[in-house]
What does this fold into?
Amino acid sequence: MISLFCNVLFKVTILFLMVAAGYVCGKVHWITNGGAKEMTSFLFWVVTPCLMISSLQDMIGKVSMGSILLSGALSFACLVVCVAFSHVLFRKVSPQRGKILRFAVAYSNCGFVGLPLVEAVLGERGVAYASVFIAVFNLSVWTHGISSMKQERQIDCKKALLNPGVLGFVVGMSFFGCSIHLPEVILSPVQCFAGMNTPLAMVVVGVYISQVPFRELFTDVSLYWVSAARLLAIPLLCFFILLPMHVDRNIFLSVLILAAAPSAANSVMFAAQFGGDTRLASKAVALTTLFSSLTMPLFPILVQYFY
It folds into this structure.
């Protein structure tokens, strides 16, 4: 148990150091607001598709298609729970503020925080199942997530399908289904761009946090409700939904860990891309990431006890 807490604390500390680098760059104006938006566009259109293709390439030959489909179905079920639960919250706040808070509850930082913890707890096989969750996450966040952030009641199917997250998943899944390994000359730069995902996203978050007085992180009561919902209520709901199914323990635990991760960095990037409140989104990501070092280890321990 102590080892698990230390693993999570170590991963979260790494993320905060990356955020701190962005914070300093923002404070001394090495990266401006315009620069952060351009970095966000680069993340969307180059890094995200490469991340999808790279993660699916890594799964070829390691897991069966049946396990992949089961993991995908359970990941989808958990994301439906996350989105449904978020929609009942913050109905009395303004629409501009509410859409940020609901997004921060619905979508977890599964790639940046969850994936390293899955790797630490379950190893390579857990990473394979976690990659499926991340693929389903990207499909959801680039369809429902964008429409909710833009406050559009209907999803534009053309835009939903022609976004970098979905396109990257389709290309990557095609290669996976046909067991096609990309040649090294192509795969190597794809993996390099995919590796930029975490540091670049955390730097962008840090730049936006630099525009928020530090004391504001702890004075907004709504952010404590976001933290409780994102870090405790949602993973507990997912746990009790998955428990009676008696699925493979690796699939169960990988899905649960990713569902228990703090608010997604996409909260900040989407707010920047679509004219939302980046200050509020940055505070939600920062505070939930801080608290996650205490809450995320609880769920692997819970699975070990009950499963």
